[in-house]
């Protein structure tokens, strides 16, 4: 069975966004197993190095992910896909036997270089910068949309 794991740094800050994310994750669960892993956010202080914060959060994420898993990291410098291409990407993952897929979205400072190095794929939502909570919503919605495209369902129209 296809399994999507979402690794999020910290909790979603706005209850309205959290509700919307849950809505799409629940819809996605009609097509695959869905699990959210909330990783403790590192405290960001004026004296804290951004690289150290990303490194510590990245180490927490990597400890969760089994070695045989497919790691998809969402990052500003990743490959941009439109919705049809996301559907094709998901379809290709399944055809290639990638059934344990981890979707990693960084916190306010992004992801560590180690996460990017370990990634099987690095994708980007846009050239624009989004708050990490909004990025969570966009990824969840786009994955749900991908399945609606693959199944020929009317949601994408």
Describe this structure in words.
By secondary structure, this protein is an alpha/beta fold. It has one domain: Alpha/beta knot. The chain has five helices and five strands, in the order βαβαβαβαβα. The protein has a five-stranded parallel beta sheet. The longest helix has 19 residues, at 132-150. The mean pLDDT is 95.
Question: What's the helix and strand layout?
Answer:
Layout: E1 3-9, H1 15-28, E2 33-39, H2 50-64, E3 70-80, H3 83-95, E4 100-105, H4 113-118, E5 121-124, H5 132-150
Parallel strand pairs: 1-2, 1-4, 3-4, 3-5
Helix pairs in contact: 1-5, 3-5
> Mean pLDDT, as a whole number?
95
Largest sheet: 5 strands, parallel
Number of helices: 5
CATH class: Alpha Beta
| CATH domain fold name | Alpha/beta knot
Question: Which sequence of SSEs, written as H and E, runs from N to C?
Answer: EHEHEHEHEH
> Strand order within the widest sheet?
2-1-4-3-5
Q: What percentage of residues falls in helices of 4 or more residues?
A: 40-55%
Radius of gyration: 15 Å
The 3D shape can be described as globular
Overall structural domain count = 1
Strand content: 15-25%
SS-based class: alpha/beta
How far apart the termini lie comes to 27 Å
Q: How many individual β-strands? A: 5
């Amino acid at each position: 069975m296809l399994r999507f794991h979402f690794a999020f740094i910290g909790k979603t800050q706005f209850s309205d966004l959290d509700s919307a994310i849950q809505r799409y994750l629940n819809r996605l669960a009609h097509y695959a197993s869905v699990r959210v892993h909330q990783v403790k956010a590192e405290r960001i202080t004026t004296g804290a190095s951004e690289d150290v914060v990303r490194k510590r959060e990245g180490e927490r994420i990597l400890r969760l992910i089994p070695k045989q898993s497919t790691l998809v990291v969402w990052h500003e410098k990743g490959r941009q896909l439109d919705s049809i291409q996301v559907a094709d990407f998901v379809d290709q993952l399944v055809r290639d036997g990638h059934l344990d897929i981890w979707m990693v979205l960084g916190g306010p400072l992004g992801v560590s270089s180690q996460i990017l190095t370990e990634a099987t794929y690095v994708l980007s939502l846009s050239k624009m910068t989004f708050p990490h909570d909004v990025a969570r919503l966009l990824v969840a919605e786009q994955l749900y949309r991908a399945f609606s495209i693959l199944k020929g369902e009317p949601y994408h129209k």
